[in-house]
Structure formats: structure tokens, C-alpha cells
């Protein structure tokens, strides 16, 4: 980890960091927020533009209903109060990638306020307040390299102009880079569950700016903050915050003062650099957008959106622990992606014994994935495959030992369980006469246990099954062994 200075842990411990995050999330609408241009990523530069998103004189914006709906859904998932009436505003600034000279955003009347996310910290769970969620349009992209004349010129791609975003602003409730990391992880998870964004950081669908300051422990007043911008992974955000906190402490310790400014993080060096002094809100000369009516999300519409709110990750984890008897940790793994949790639950519900599916995931699947360094999404065995294998064990068609071997094969060949089972179905002894013979032998060799069994200690059946399986190297059909054993032990009794 890069550190700014050699400040000692003792000095570091005398200060408390205060962190607030601003997260921009791109909404997954097919068209832009105020025009019908496509939002598709990766199209040729400047191919998805029109007079509205180019800001040509006389062009008028029309709000995309879907964008408002998605933003409302996200706000609800973040426990916000949705304002029935919110107002679009012009945020004026000059930048080459903003052809209108202003961005349509929301200012003093945002779409939603007063939300929170619960995060896990060392001391348990903590509520991180969400100040607001508002709708706005994205700006274009400046392309600084990749062209023959990149040394002298910057190119512009305006395809992204007018792509719908929500900005999610947290309260300054975070007290460490770890908490910030956890907040972002939970936030992303919740947004992914609502499916209003793909949160793809490489494509810029999720971007994060961090406001950070430090104050002497026990002091109530916040210190002067800096804003760290455009960090493109959660890991880098944690690193950038670590660096920035130490940099600020070092300045204060040497008697200096923090400059309120915007800083950029250089991931290669692990350092932040001053970019510009931070604008105040009045620098943007916000005023209500005269070309758009206020956005009205009335009670009926809110209710309609609320009905589409899915079960959210935290609630789902708790329910899965209760329903399937799995651990908190495994519920966390299985709910890490909604698709995975859906697959698991679908498979588990369709299986004869849902708990066995959960057990197999824990005991046979996760360990093998870990050993191979694979994420669960990359598993060769699908949840459907796990369910099928669970049913086979349940019905006695295969033994636990055979299942392990088939799982090994599936991982070796990167094939799903049904395919492996079809091809390498274990040779089972299903010949009743052969099994009976073995049972006779086991009964003859264990007179004491037979006597106890007959006296009522029926739990000894497991012992006999084990003996038969041992003799057949686990290849006897378990269901048949059970059936025949019961018959034999009972038959002997009558003799
Ligand atoms: Zn357009």
C-alpha cells in the first residue's frame, strides 16, 4: 500500500477520517434521457447523436419515462423517500464534452431523499445515510489518445451525451476506507438486483467520487475536505482514500492547512494529485430547466414501481439461511449475483430435497471452485447439475462417493454434471442376487450386531449398509442395499 508519509500508527490513530461518496450509475434504458438516440456502448463515435443531445438551438428535451421509473425503483431499493414532485435544473459549466454548455440535472428538488444502506463493520451493522438520489444526463467523452494526432489534439465522442444517470449521494457517515469499500459493494449489489444498471465499471456505468476529510478524534467539526474523482475500481477507491487520509494527516501534523480541491488518483503510483480548486454550487449558476416540466411521480405511479421491487440481497440472505439451513457465509456467496441466487433457488425448489442441494453446494462445489481459483459464475457444474446430482443421491441411484468422483470429472473436463453423468455413469451393482449374497456374508460375520438389531436397535442398519458398501467399494445400488437388508434382517428374525 502506498503511503504519503511515514506517519506512525499512533499519529494516525489520533485522527478520524470522514468520508462521503457520490456514485453515478448509468441506467439501462434503450434510449437516452431526453431524446430517442440509442444508449448502446461501443458504437462508432458520434453515431448516436441528434439535435437534442448535441444541444443545437431550438431543440427541446422530452423526458424518457423509463429513466424516471428506473431511478424511482433504485431510490426505493435504497430506502429513500421519493418526492412526488422534483425539478430538473441546468448546471452550467464549460467543458468540451458538454456541447450545450450545461448539464440537465436536479438541484434543490431531487427525485428522492433520506435513504440508507446497511453495511457490515467490525462492530456489527451500521446505517449509512443516503442524502439524495437524483436524475441527470451524462456528458460526452474526451478521447486523449489512440489517434495519429493525439499528441496535439483531443477528440470528442458525444454518443454518451444525454445517457441517463442517477447520482447517489451518501451522508458523510463513513469512517474508514474499509467502510467505504463495503458501502460501494452493497450499493452495487442492490442496484444490480433492481436491474436498472449493469454497474459495469470498465464501461463507466458506475463511477465514484469520494469526499474525504480528517479531524482530530473527538472533534465534532468536520475538517476541510478534498474530492477524489474518477477512480475506476473499488479497490483503487480504498487505496486512494488510504493515501488521501495519510496525506491530509501529514499536512495537519506539520502545521499546514488542507486546501479544498479536486484531486485525481493515479493508480500506478498510488497517489492523488491536485487538479483544480473545488467549485462551489454557486459557480454552476443552477436554475430550473425552462424546457422541462417538473417530474411528477404520484402515489399511483410510485405504487406501480414499488410492486416491481425485487427481494433485496440482505432480505434474501436471511430467508435463504432459514429456508435451506445454510450458513451466512454461503448465503452471501449464493446471493452475490441475482442470477446465481435465482438459479440456485430454482434448482433447489425443483429438487427432491432442497437442503441436500444447499449442502452439496457447500460441501462439494464451493471447495472445488476455491481450489481451482474459480468464481461461482465460472463453475463447470451448473445449479441444475447440482440439483440433478442431489436427486440421484437422494434416490439412491448413486452413492456419495460416486458423486464426488463425478464432480471431480466435471471439473477436470469442464463439463456440466448431466453430461458427465450420461457418459460416465458409474457401474453400479444392481444385481439383486449378487447383493443378497454379500448381505448374507455380512450378517453371518456380525452375529452380535444382528442380535442387537433384532432386539430393537434399528439404528444399526447404517452399520450393515456401511459393511455392504465397503465390500462393494461403494458400487452397490444404495436403494437396493437398503431394501434387501431390511428384508434379510427381518427374514432372519422369523426363522
Ligand atoms: Zn439524441
What does this structure look like?
β12, α5 and β13 form a beta-alpha-beta unit. The chain is 41% helix and 20% strand. The protein is built from 17 helices and 16 strands. The chain has 495 residues and is of the alpha+beta class. The model has no long low-confidence stretch (mean pLDDT 90). 35% of the residues are buried. The chain binds zinc ion (ZN). Zinc ion binds next to α2.
Please summarize what this structure is:
This protein is α+β, with helices and mostly antiparallel strands. It has helices spanning 9-12, 51-54, 65-77, 177-194, 234-253, 299-306, 313-324, 328-334, 338-350, 354-372, 383-395, 400-413, 417-424, 432-445, 447-454, 461-471, 478-494; strands spanning 15-26, 81-82, 85-86, 88-92, 102-106, 112-121, 124-137, 141-143, 155-157, 164-170, 206-216, 226-231, 261-266, 271-277, 287-288, 295-296.
Provide the fold topology.
Blueprint: H1 9-12, E1 15-26, H2 51-54, H3 65-77, E2 81-82, E3 85-86, E4 88-92, E5 102-106, E6 112-121, E7 124-137, E8 141-143, E9 155-157, E10 164-170, H4 177-194, E11 206-216, E12 226-231, H5 234-253, E13 261-266, E14 271-277, E15 287-288, E16 295-296, H6 299-306, H7 313-324, H8 328-334, H9 338-350, H10 354-372, H11 383-395, H12 400-413, H13 417-424, H14 432-445, H15 447-454, H16 461-471, H17 478-494
Parallel strand pairs: 12-13
Antiparallel strand pairs: 1-10, 1-11, 2-6, 3-16, 4-5, 4-15, 6-7, 7-10, 8-9, 11-12, 13-14
Helix pairs in contact: 4-5, 7-8, 9-10, 9-11, 10-11, 12-13, 14-16, 14-17, 16-17
The chain binds zinc ion.
Residues 32, 35, 37, 49-50, 52-53, 162 line the site of zinc ion.
Amino acid at each position: 500500500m502506498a503511503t504519503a508519509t511515514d506517519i506512525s500508527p499512533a499519529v494516525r490513530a489520533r485522527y478520524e477520517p470522514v468520508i462521503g461518496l457520490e456514485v453515478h450509475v448509468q441506467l439501462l434504458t434503450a434510449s437516452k434521457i431526453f431524446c430517442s438516440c440509442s444508449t448502446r456502448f461501443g458504437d462508432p463515435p458520434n453515431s448516436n447523436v441528434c439535435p437534442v443531445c448535441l444541444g443545437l438551438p431550438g431543440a427541446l428535451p422530452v423526458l424518457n419515462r423509463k429513466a424516471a421509473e428506473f431511478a424511482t425503483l433504485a431510490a426505493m431499493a435504497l430506502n429513500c423517500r421519493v418526492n412526488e414532485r422534483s425539478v430538473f435544473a441546468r448546471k452550467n459549466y464549460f467543458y468540451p464534452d458538454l456541447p450545450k454548455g450545461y448539464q440537465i440535472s436536479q438541484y434543490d428538488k431531487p427525485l428522492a431523499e433520506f435513504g440508507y444502506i446497511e453495511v457490515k463493520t467490525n462492530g456489527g451493522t451500521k446505517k449509512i445515510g443516503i442524502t439524495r438520489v437524483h436524475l441527470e444526463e451524462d456528458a460526452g467523452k474526451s478521447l486523449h489518445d489512440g489517434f495519429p494526432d493525439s499528441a496535439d489534439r483531443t477528440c470528442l465522442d458525444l454518443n454518451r451525451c444525454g445517457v441517463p444517470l442517477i447520482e447517489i449521494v451518501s451522508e458523510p457517515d463513513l469512517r474508514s476506507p474499509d467502510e467505504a469499500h463495503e458501502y460501494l459493494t452493497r450499493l452495487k449489489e442492490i442496484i444490480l438486483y433492481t436491474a436498472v444498471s449493469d454497474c459495469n465499471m470498465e464501461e463507466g456505468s458506475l463511477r465514484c467520487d469520494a469526499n474525504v476529510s480528517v479531524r482530530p478524534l473527538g472533534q465534532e467539526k468536520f475538517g476541510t475536505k478534498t474530492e477524489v474523482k474518477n477512480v475506476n475500481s473499488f479497490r483503487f477507491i480504498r487505496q486512494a482514500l488510504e493515501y488521501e487520509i495519510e496525506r491530509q494527516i501529514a499536512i495537519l501534523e506539520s502545521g499546514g492547512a488542507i486546501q479544498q480541491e479536486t484531486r485525481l488518483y493515479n493508480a500506478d503510483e498510488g497517489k492523488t494529485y491536485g487538479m483544480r480548486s473545488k467549485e462551489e454550487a454557486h459557480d454552476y449558476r443552477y436554475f430550473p430547466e425552462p424546457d422541462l416540466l417538473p417530474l411528477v411521480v404520484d402515489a399511483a405511479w410510485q405504487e406501480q414501481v414499488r410492486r416491481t421491487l425485487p427481494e433485496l440481497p440482505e432480505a434474501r440472505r436471511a430467508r435463504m439461511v432459514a429456508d435451506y439451513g445454510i450458513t451466512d457465509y454461503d448465503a452471501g456467496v449464493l446471493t452475490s449475483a441475482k442470477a446465481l441466487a435465482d438459479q440456485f433457488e430454482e434448482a433447489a425448489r425443483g429438487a427432491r430435497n432442497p437442503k441436500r442441494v444447499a449442502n452439496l453446494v457447500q460441501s462439494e462445489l464451493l471447495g472445488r471452485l476455491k481450489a481451482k481459483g474459480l468464481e461461482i459464475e465460472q463453475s463447470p457444474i451448473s445449479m441444475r447439475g447440482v440439483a440433478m446430482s442431489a436427486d440421484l443421491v437422494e434416490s439412491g441411484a448413486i452413492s456419495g462417493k460416486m458423486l464426488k468422483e463425478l464432480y471431480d470429472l466435471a471439473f477436470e473436463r469442464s463439463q456440466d454434471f448431466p453430461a458427465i453423468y450420461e457418459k460416465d455413469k458409474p457401474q453400479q451393482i444392481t444385481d439383486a442376487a449378487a447383493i443378497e449374497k454379500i448381505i448374507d456374508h455380512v450378517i453371518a460375520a456380525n452375529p452380535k450386531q444382528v442380535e442387537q438389531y433384532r432386539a430393537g436397535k434399528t439404528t444399526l442398519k447404517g452399520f450393515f449398509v456401511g459393511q455392504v458398501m465397503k465390500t462393494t467399494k461403494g458400487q452397490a445400488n444404495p436403494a437396493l442395499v437398503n431394501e434387501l437388508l431390511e428384508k434379510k434382517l427381518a427374514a432372519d428374525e422369523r426363522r
